[in-house]
Write a structure and sequence with these properties.
Number of helices: 19
Radius of gyration: 26 Å
Strand order of the largest sheet: 13-14-15-16
Number of strands: 16
Distance between the termini: 38 Å
Length: about 475
């Protein structure tokens, strides 16, 4: 494993680490032999996760697997928090939580318990890195250190962090600094102050390889023990709004907010869709992700009825009545408000097309010039603070888009006759009453959007 598999792939699970061998195992006719090899793969990955080199004996393969709830009780932590830690360590590969119980090999359980008991607080991370506690967050946002909730067994509450992530950062600093032992450098704190950036953002830039470092003051903790190499053109800009966002999950998954945006539906509707099996999920609670392929496929074949109203020209109730006259009910049955939250009315697009004899989709733009422009708007808005969430296709009726915490929002519409994409500010972005971006002047329009995003980033308080 250490010779042939990059360390960053270890958290992807045994099916990735032992890819070729695991595929061969799956076609073995001897079920007992296949099961034995599967246990060997899982045990090897678990031992490597806690840097153990203890030998495995025959009896180790005869021990019973342990369930997630039982393991949580054994360690004394919350079940959901434990699941998140196990997933981060690569011990939940390709499992459908909502269909079958989660079981761990005893060696995996020992490795999970080892990491849980080694977890550190935010203050301990900050002390080890030589920074203030609020400067840890940019490292979390960039994915260099992972945070977990609901894993507190004893002591103060709050998030916990993997000690292995912390040790990886410290090891990276030591290795990189040694390569430039003869270079001229400025102390980490001084460099950050002179360039007007927060220490957390400078630390992130260093770990991303955008700034070279050299050995600094010996005996000081973390980043205070290194200096930043001073060469022309290598200083960070005076702004702290450099895009450091890294999606901390596989590309085939979407968050709840991303899924809501893509489907143009409410959270309650999304939950109902997952509960009734229309969308595939992975994880549970705060760690729930949705299968991207299933979300995009659902978006292709279904429509929120409100998106259809501009073409229909009537009310939602009238549309429901017409569909009912054709023996077509909404995908999600309506429930009395006293029993549950209301949900969006959703129909299969094929049913709408059949009832109204549609030859083209009246809810989406088919202009290739606009769609190309929209892709660039979506990419820009999603990579710069405050990280607005855009759907892959803008509805003809327009859509309210916002950042993950919904503080900043815009109602976005496109006028195909004038060729203008318009943003109307809502909530804490209401000062931007209307921003018009002609698609004919792409560069100027994108620059205008970047100015707005910059203003919102400066207006947003720093995360602590």
């Amino acid at each position: 494993m250490r010779t042939n598999v990059p360390e960053e792939l270890h958290a992807r699970g045994y099916t990735i680490v032992f890819g070729w061998a695991n595929r061969k195992r799956q076609v073995l006719e001897d079920d007992q032999l296949s099961d034995l090899l599967k246990k060997a793969f899982r045990k090897a990955l678990a031992l490597e996760a806690r840097a153990s080199s203890q030998p495995l004996r025959s009896d180790d393969f005869l021990k019973e697997e342990i369930g997630l709830t039982a393991l949580a009780e054994r360690i004394g932590v919350n079940r959901k928090g434990l699941a998140a830690v196990a997933d981060a360590l690569g011990f939940l590969p390709e499992r459908d939580w909502y269909r079958s119980p989660v079981k761990f090999d005893p060696t995996e359980a020992d490795a999970i318990e080892f990491h849980c008991r080694q977890m550190v607080t935010r203050m301990e991370v900050a002390t080890a890195l030589g920074m203030a506690s609020q400067d840890v967050q940019p490292l979390v946002d960039a994915g260099f250190i992972r945070e977990f909730r609901n894993v507190t067994a004893n002591g103060p509450g709050g998030f916990r962090f993997l000690r292995s992530d912390l040790e990886t950062i410290l090891g990276t600093l030591a290795a990189r600094a040694q390569k430039n032992s003869d270079a001229t450098s400025i102390a980490f704190f001084t460099y950050a102050k002179n360039n007007g950036v927060r220490m957390g953002h400078l630390a992130t830039s260093i770990l991303q390889g955008r700034n070279e470092i050299a050995p600094g003051a010996p005996g000081k903790p973390g980043f205070r023990s290194i200096g930043v190499v001073c060469e022309p053109g290598q200083s960070l800009p005076a702004t702290s709004r450099a895009a450091t966002r890294i999606i901390k999950r596989p590309a085939e998954l979407l968050s709840l907010v991303e899924s809501e945006t893509e489907l143009n539906i409410t959270r309650e509707t999304l939950i109902r869709l997952t509960e009734e099996g229309h969308l595939g999920t992975r994880g549970s609670g705060a760690c729930t992700w949705l299968d991207k392929a299933s979300v995009l496929d659902f978006a292709t074949h279904h429509r929120n009825a409100r998106e259809f109203l501009p073409y229909f020209g009537g009310s939602l109730d009238e549309l429901i009545e017409i569909m009912a006259d054709n023996d077509i009910d909404p995908l999600l049955a309506r429930r009395p408000k006293r029993e549950s939250h209301s949900v969006n009315i959703i129909y299969r697009y094929s049913d709408l097309a059949a009832v109204f004899k549609l030859r083209h989709d009246p809810t989406r733009f088919d202009d290739p010039v606009f769609n190309a422009f929209w892709s660039k708007v979506r990419e820009l808005g999603g990579t710069l603070p405050p990280y607005l969430q855009f759907p892959s296709k803008l509805p003809v009726s327009g859509q309210l888009i916002s950042n993950g915490k919904r503080k900043f929002a815009f109602f976005v519409t496109f006028d195909p006759t004038a060729g203008i994409l318009a943003f109307e500010g809502k909530r804490q972005a209401s000062e931007f009453k209307r921003i018009e971006m002609p698609i004919a002047d792409e560069s100027q329009s994108l620059a205008r959007l970047e100015q707005v995003l910059s203003a919102l980033a400066d207006k947003s308080p720093k995360r602590h």
